[in-house]
């Protein structure tokens, strides 16, 4: 088992801790200060308002933490909502945005630290961790909100389970909170079971215990389906290919420029760019590297297909306007898993006859597409946030209460999402 999940024995030195602190601050700055991130500080997104904030201001914390929503527990968003509930309601959007950005930056650090045993190249580790922050598919709908943070937590937990010499208490707490916030952590069950055969079992034991609680909750809860539309296998296949290998390199927004003009040629091109490092890694890599490549590739496929099949709606058909913008969040974890398989493949390919040119060329191609995709994304002034700002919504709620209403209506993003709050709770 040691050859499948190796151990990085060298502890981080002082400069590494300084670098990780600087990386955390830089990640927070990017997520919050780019145009879309800045807008998040004054826009409350979907369930962060109508489910988590509303419940936190109406019911006890204990009730909220054990109450399923959508058929499963949401421990991390609930805890953040409890924090926001003790602060002035006008701060709510900023609290959610700040905590979401901080936790996403923390996931990037977990990826960097947990991947040390699998990479010879520190720049490759840094690039993989940086993708948690700059991934264009993660910087629109899923940006800086707790409702969609679990896609990043899922990926971070994957690396936390592979990080054999991780600090026990903080990393065990991390995987527990993730398992109690996302039903998709079930896909990591095989990884946790393999870890149980190795020393330092605290993290997988904690994860499996929390996963059991989440599984029982799901079994006893009722989930209302997003849609009654039947999934078409051909459409699911096309949507999966567009939402993962293509979106990984172009971002979701720009796909509407390429796909109508080029058709399935963009899928073929993206698959070639993605598969070359994967195949070379499988050919030249060691046992741990090959296992990681296969595991990450399988998880990428399983997560995207599962999400599309369980949540399929006609708006996800690839010929619809926006192509992949409906349910953009489904691309986040699968794209990160795909990049993991690619980066490990690039790192495992030896720099010998023909290998050096292949590795260097592949790195430049992948890096070019990612940088260009991030640049394209930064041209979007505020992406999906075009609705009522949170401060305006709160001001309007105060006006309603001043006019004699017993309950105020607080509108938030996306369009037509709102919840009511008693005026005596408005503050």
Structure report:
The protein has 427 residues and is mainly alpha-helical. The protein folds into 3 domains: 214 residues, no CATH class; 155 residues, no CATH class; 31 residues, no CATH class. It contains 19 helices and 2 strands. It has a two-stranded antiparallel ribbon with strand order 1-2. A hairpin with a 4-residue loop joins strand 1 and strand 2. Helix 5 crosses helix 6. It is globular and about 75 Å long. The model has no long low-confidence stretch (mean pLDDT 89).
Task: Note the main attributes of this structure.
427 residues; mainly alpha; 3 domains; 2 strands
Poorly predicted runs: none
Number of helices: 19
**Averaged pLDDT, please?**
89
**Based on helices, strands and strand pairing, what is the structural class?**
mainly alpha
Series of secondary-structure elements, N-terminal to C-terminal: HHHHHHHHHHHHHHHHHHEEH
> In what range is the share of β-strand residues?
under 5%
Helix content percent band: 55-70%
Globally, the shape reads: globular
What is the number of E strands?
Answer: 2
What is the radius of gyration? Answer: 22 Å
Task: Domain count, please report it.
Answer: 3
Strand order of the largest sheet: 1-2
Largest sheet: 2 strands, antiparallel
How far apart the termini lie comes to 57 Å
Write a brief caption for the model.
With 427 residues, this protein is mainly α. The protein is built from 19 helices and 2 strands.
Secondary-structure topology with pairs:
Elements: H1 14-33, H2 35-40, H3 47-58, H4 61-66, H5 75-85, H6 92-114, H7 122-134, H8 150-162, H9 168-179, H10 189-195, H11 202-220, H12 233-250, H13 255-262, H14 265-284, H15 287-310, H16 332-348, H17 355-378, H18 390-402, E1 407-412, E2 417-422, H19 423-426
Antiparallel strand pairs: 1-2
Helix pairs in contact: 1-6, 3-5, 5-6, 6-7, 6-8, 7-16, 8-9, 8-16, 9-11, 10-11, 12-14, 12-15, 12-16, 14-15, 14-16, 14-17, 15-16
């Amino acid at each position: 088992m040691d050859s499948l999940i190796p151990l990085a024995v060298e502890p981080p030195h002082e400069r590494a801790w300084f670098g990780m602190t600087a990386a955390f601050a830089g990640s927070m700055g990017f997520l919050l200060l780019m145009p879309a991130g800045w807008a998040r500080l004054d826009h409350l997104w979907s369930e962060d308002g109508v489910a988590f904030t509303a419940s936190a201001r109406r019911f006890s914390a204990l009730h909220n933490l054990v109450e399923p929503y959508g058929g499963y527990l949401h421990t991390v968003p609930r805890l953040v909502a409890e924090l926001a509930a003790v602060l002035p309601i006008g701060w709510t959007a900023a609290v959610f945005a700040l905590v979401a950005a901080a936790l996403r930056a923390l996931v990037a650090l977990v990826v960097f630290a947990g991947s040390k045993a699998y990479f010879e190249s520190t720049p490759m580790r840094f690039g993989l961790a940086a993708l948690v922050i700059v991934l264009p598919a993660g910087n629109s709908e899923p940006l800086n909100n707790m409702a969609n943070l679990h896609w990043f937590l899922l990926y971070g937990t994957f690396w936390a389970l592979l990080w054999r010499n991780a600090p026990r208490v903080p990393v065990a707490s991390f995987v527990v909170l993730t398992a109690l916030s996302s039903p998709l952590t079930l896909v990591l069950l095989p990884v946790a079971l393999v870890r149980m055969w190795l020393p330092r079992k605290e993290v997988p034991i904690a994860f499996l215990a929390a996963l059991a609680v989440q599984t029982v909750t799901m079994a006893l809860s009722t989930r209302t389906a997003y849609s009654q539309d039947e999934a078409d296998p051909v459409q699911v296949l096309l949507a999966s290919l567009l939402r993962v290998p293509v979106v990984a390199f172009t971002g979701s927004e720009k796909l509407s420029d390429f796909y109508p003009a080029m058709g399935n040629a963009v899928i073929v091109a993206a698959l070639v760019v993605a598969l070359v490092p994967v195949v070379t890694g499988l050919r030249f890599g060691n046992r741990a590297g090959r296992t990681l490549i296969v595991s990450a590739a399988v998880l990428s496929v399983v997560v995207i297909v599962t999400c599309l099949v369980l949540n399929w709606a006609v708006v996800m058909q690839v010929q619809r306007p926006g192509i992949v913008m409906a349910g953009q969040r489904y691309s986040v974890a699968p794209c990160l898993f795909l990049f993991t398989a690619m980066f490990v493949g690039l790192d495992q390919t030896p720099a010998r006859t023909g290998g050096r040119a292949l590795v260097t060329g592949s790195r430049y191609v992948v890096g070019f597409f990612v940088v260009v995709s991030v640049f394209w994304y930064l041209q979007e002034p505020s992406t999906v946030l075009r609705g009522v700002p949170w401060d305006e919504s709160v001001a309007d709620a105060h006006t309603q209460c001043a006019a004699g209403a017993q309950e105020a209506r607080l509108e938030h993003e996306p369009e037509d999402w709102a919840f009511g709050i008693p005026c005596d709770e408005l503050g």
